[in-house]
Structures are given as C-alpha cells and as structure tokens.
Amino acid sequence: MPEPLYDLVVTGPIVLTGDPTTPIIHDAVIAISNGRFARIAAATKETGPPLQARRTVHLPGRVITPGLVNVHTHANLSMVRGVAEDLGFAPAYTPGIPQGHMVSEDEAYAISRLGALEALLFGSTLINDTFVHADIVTPAMAEIGLRVWSCGRIHDVDFSGVSLGRWEHVDAIGDRTLQDALDLAARYEGRSDARIGVQLAAHAPDTCSTPFLRRIAEAADNAGLRVTTHLSQSKVELARIRERDDISPPELLDEVGLLNDRLTAAHCIHVSDDDIARIGRAGIHVAHIAKGNATGATIAPTHKLRKAGAKLALGTDNMHADMVEVMRWALAVGRIQLGAVTPDWQPETVFEMATMAGARAMGLENEIGSIEVGKRADFVAFDFRQPHLTPATNPLGNLVHVAQGRDVELVAVEGELVVEDGRPTRVDADLIRREATDAIASLWARARGH
Fold first, then answer.
1. Are 311 and 360 in contact (CB under 8 A)?
2. Amidohydrolase-related domain: which residues (predicted)?
3. Quick check: 62 and 399 in contact, CB under 8 A?
4. d(Cα 318, Cα 157) in Å, to the nearest integer?
C-alpha cells in the first residue's frame, strides 16, 4: 500500500509530546493530514524513504511542544500594560485608569487583536478571553489564527461606580450581559469546528448579585455551557460577600450551583481551609495566575488546592501573554510555598498545567493539549539554537527554566502554519500594533479627563 500524501511533514526536532506514555521524541518526524496528527515517530535508518507531503519543514535544533492553552486572559487589558501591575489591584476596581465601560467597539477591536497576536506569537494556540464587546472582538481575534474562546463579562453591577466604591446592581445590566453571552454562544459554540467557543464569563461573586448568579448557573445548565469566573481574588471581594451574604465566595458559588467540575475559576487566593476543601470536593478547574498574583504580592495555595482535588491550569490574566514565563513563575512560587524542591512539583508539573490541564478545563482534552495521533495538529516550535538554550541536555528543563515566549519560531493551529520565523502569516503585525497604539492613546486621554 503506497504511503499517503500528507499535508505537512516536520522533520528533525525534539518533541515534548505531553503524552505521558511517550513524553519525548528525539529527531522526530511528524506528519499531518486534514488538520490532525497522522504520524509521530523518531527517525531511524529503517524508516524508509522520506514521507511525501505537500510541504516539508526541517527543524533540527528546535523543540516542539503542544500548543499552549491559556485558560484565563483579557486581551484588551494591554491598554493598561506597565501601569496596572503597580497599583495593587485589578483594573476594574482601580480609579484613574481606562475602564472596560469606557472602551468603544472600534477600540476593543483594535486592542483585542494586539492581545491575541501577542498570545499567538508567544505560543498560545487557544485563549479563553473575557472583557467587553465580545461579539466584535471574538471573530477579530480568531482571524489572527489561534483558537478563541471568548465571552463578554457577565455582571449586573454598574461598573462605572465600582472603582469609586459604589456597588449598585441593576437588573437591566444583568439581563443585557447574560443575553449577549447566550447569543454569542448560540452563534459559535459547537458551530466553529473548535476554532471559536464560549464559556459563560460570570465576572465575579461581588459584581454579580446572588439572584443573578443563580440565573447564570441555570442558563449554563440549560445551554450545556461551561462557566469561567474570578474567585476569591481580593480581600475586598471577601469582605463584600461576607457583608452581603454572610458566607465566603466559594460557599456562595456552591450555594447557587456554580461550584462544579465545569467551572474554571481564576485566582483562588484568599481561601480558608474550609474553602479549599469545598473547592476540592467540587473538582473545579483553578486558573492559576502565577505571575500576575505574585506581582500583586499574593500567591494562591496551589499545593493545598491540588491535594484537595482542584485541577490546576494556567492563565496569564492581565498585561502580558507569555505562558512560558507563567510556567516558570508557577514552578517558582510553588517551591517558595513548600520551602523545598520536591519530586511532585517539577517542570513536567507546570508543563502539564499549560497544556493538557488547560485542554481539560476547556472540555477539549480529546482534541488538543498533547501531540498524539488523531488529535488536532496544534503545536509550537521553540528555537533552541541560541546560547541561553544550549545545551539541551534536558529540553523540558530548559523550556521552563530558561526559555521565553520570544523564542517561539513557528506555530501551527490545525496544521496551518500561522507563525513562521517568528512572524504571523495571516495578518500584518505592524498594522495591528499601530492601530492598537492609537486606540489605547485615545482611551488614556479620556480616562485622564474623567
């Protein structure tokens, strides 16, 4: 039987598969057909003649990984990059800087494409994004080439007052934000061949009234949708929920029906032992924001959460999109908490969090997250032909301890090369940067005026 004609063949790299049965392949040959991995093996003298393909890419000196899965980000918040990190609190709660309710549709379009492009160039092949004008930004980000799960933030609080300490819940705001999210899901979820999807983005326990949280849980159940939220991210949130409901935020989400294994909750920093046990019993996915939280002088109790049963994945959250850097921070802050280097908190631990654990949080573990025959061909090539990545005695150790997103040379999504030689193939990166710069300047001018 003749060898098939593949769409793409990659030869020569080291492959970190993310598959625990065969975690690393040296001098690999990867063949792709119809957007999926069709063959993955080490090259040998007995391999026979070269595989026939419409295109062959030879990548010696590179390390290939599964596409990185960023389960919690806000592409538009590059608008406060380099500023919000030093204010000590999330942008939505901070006066004097651009706020989501200030962003126009055109500005959201331009800025979100900058954030999505950054994520793609740094090796993320899927982002789970929430912010504003999701109907506009979702297809705009997907056009760049990566998989985009997106949803407008769902809340019934009037955000124009939150940064000033005014908490006013308005039914009309909740009606609109929830319906917009359900409309987006009806448009894309299950209809885009896993290129675009929706998780209902309940913003946070303190920005959603208790009756509204129940409505979101009911809507998610009725529509068969997963939910993403911020949870126990600040002392303000804890105090607000304690005053309003006389319970903790995890208790509240449990009470309204949102604390379950279809929830991805970012942060989970300020949690008691009882909260941790509750979170673990529910088996939620925790989006560990290792770098962002540490920048704000906080660390999530990752070891306690994992031991209790929570599933840890990784997200970049605000201001940057480098998942390689997030892996490194997750490894480091975890060891700081333990005060030791342990066998169960190693580079492979955080690598799994950035790949397969992220795929599970998105409900896509059978489709992406590892390089295995039959899965969708999402992968990233890091250029290890550089002094800081030499020698490659332990490629995974180099990746987590030394590499950066800037070392990404090539990115494929569904077998399509959407980044080559570190540049996007679908869009003009310089144009995206210029348009986003202009939009952000306009926003800052208005914010200063306020």
1. yes
2. 63-418
3. no
4. 21
User: Strand, helix or coil at 96?
Assistant: coil
Query: Which of the four pLDDT bands, split at 50, 70 and 90, describes residue 246?
Result: very high
Q: What is the DSSP letter of 423?
A: E
Residue 255, SS3 per DSSP: helix
CB 371 within 8 A of CB 380: no
**Burial of 155 per CB tally in 10 Å (0-12, 13-18, 19+):** buried
What residue ranges do the domains of the chain occupy? 8-66+369-424, 68-361
Residue 93, Ramachandran bin (φ over 0: left; ψ between -120 and 50: alpha; else beta): alpha
| pTM (two decimals) | 0.96
- The C-alpha angle 238, 243, 248, rounded to 5 degrees, equals 40
- Out of 3.20.20.140, 1.10.3720.10, 3.40.630.30, 3.50.30.30, which CATH number does the structure's domain 68-361 have? 3.20.20.140
- Paired strand residues for 6: 53
Which of the four pLDDT bands, split at 50, 70 and 90, describes residue 392? Answer: very high
Cα 282 from Cα 288, distance rounded (Å) = 17
Number of Cα atoms under 13 Å in the Cβ half of residue 53: 22
pLDDT tens readout for residues 83-100: 888 887 667 667 778 888
- pLDDT category at 38 given cuts 50, 70, 90 is very high
Query: pLDDT tens-digit profile of 140-178?
Result: 999 999 999 999 999 999 988 887 788 899 999 999 999
Encoded tokens for 145? 């080439």
What is the pLDDT confidence band of residue 1, given thresholds at 50, 70 and 90? low
Q: How many CA atoms lie within 13 A of 250 on its CB side?
A: 27
For the chain, the average pLDDT equals 95
Q: Where are the alpha helices (DSSP H) in 263-405?
A: 273-282, 290-295, 302-308, 323-338, 347-354, 356-361, 395-401
Q: Which CATH superfamily is domain 8-66+369-424 in?
A: Urease, subunit C, domain 1 (2.30.40.10)
pLDDT of residue 154: 98
Average pLDDT of span 69-89:
89
| CB < 8 Å & 24+ apart, contacts of 176-183 | 177/152, 177/153, 178/154, 178/212, 178/215, 178/216, 178/219, 180/134, 180/135, 180/152, 181/134, 181/151, 181/152, 181/154, 182/219, 182/223, 183/135
Closest CA to 104 of 80, 74, 76: 76
| Size of the chain, expressed as the number of residues it contains | 450
| Interatomic CA distance for residues 368 and 320, integer angstroms | 23
